[in-house]
Design brief:
Elements lengths: L15 E5 L4 H13 L5 E4 L8 H7 L3 H6 L1 E3 L2 H4 L5 E5 L10 E2 L1 H13 L4 E5 L8 H4 L4 E3 L12 H15 L18 H18 L8 H14 L4 H21 L1
Parallel strand pairs: 1-2, 1-6, 2-3, 4-6, 4-7, 5-7
Helix pairs in contact: 1-2, 1-7, 5-7, 8-10
Length: 255
């Protein structure tokens, strides 16, 4: 899905995304793009296999240059998280250690609280082939595990970053679950609807559609309910008025 407002950049705060030994530059770039989608800008790289900077990462980032430009390089996971107060590790496998496991949604809510208190938070992601090693997971306060099909729960590195980053973004987003996009018009008022109903029903009476006196009240109710459910805009009502008027004109010409 396309759509970018260049006036809006990265979030002023948010969790650091720590990629431990990422293998492909393309995946680093795609992860950076996912971060930019969700307003995150603190990318930390621990021993990327193909070195850094990486041209393939730039190409895959598809314009998320601000994230790549700010990316920091580290020799170890411990160095990458040294300034953080809380750390989450992402893994899909049980590692035989006692760790609290949270879904991305639950973790995102927790991270929002820590960040609001001024605490620096980071999220660890392991190499594409193997994931995080136990030594890295041991450095984390909790584990994030994405609930997926148990028979096929493996995720690409960038997919993992996007899921977690998206939940972070959603936890602080005020967009309503559903809304009407009306462009330059607006939803029709009840008065405008009633005016249309009167117009339509006059024409239906004239053409004989509502000629059955006994059934007329229920037919009118059904017609009105149909248009009520459509949540019409003012512009749409104008179009319907025009259609009804044109059909009436055509009927008159045929007489």
């Amino acid at each position: 899905m396309a759509g970018t407002d260049r006036k809006r950049g990265l979030a002023a705060s948010g969790p650091a995304i720590v990629l431990v030994e990422p293998q492909l530059g393309e995946n680093i770039g795609a992860a950076a793009r996912a971060m930019m989608n969700c307003g995150l800008g603190d990318l930390r790289l621990v021993r990327p296999r193909d070195g850094w900077p990486n041209d393939k990462a730039v190409a895959a980032a598809s314009g998320a240059d601000a994230v790549l430009t700010r990316a920091r390089l580290y020799d170890s996971t411990a160095d990458a998280i040294a300034d953080l107060r809380r750390v989450y590790a992402t893994t899909a496998r049980h590692r035989g250690m006692i760790k609290r496991v949270a879904t991305p949604r639950r973790a995102a809510g927790e991270i929002r609280k820590w960040v609001a208190r001024g605490e620096a938070v980071g999220i660890l992601f392991g190499p594409e082939r193997t994931g995080l090693v136990n030594e890295d997971i041991a450095l984390a306060d909790a584990v994030i595990s994405v609930p997926l099909n148990p028979g096929f729960a493996s995720l690409n590195l960038a997919q993992s970053v996007l899921i977690v980053a998206y939940e972070w973004f959603q936890a602080g987003d005020a967009t309503p679950p559903s809304r009407l996009v009306t462009n330059e018009t607006r939803p029709a008022t009840k008065a405008e609807l009633m005016n249309f109903f009167a117009h339509l029903e006059r024409q239906l009476d004239d053409c004989g559609f509502l000629r059955n006196v006994e059934k007329r009240p229920s037919m009118v109710r059904n017609i009105r309910n149909l248009f009520q459910r459509a949540a019409l805009t003012r512009q749409e009502l104008r179009t319907l008025h025009g259609i009804v008027a044109e059909l009436s004109t055509l009927r008159q010409r045929r007489k």
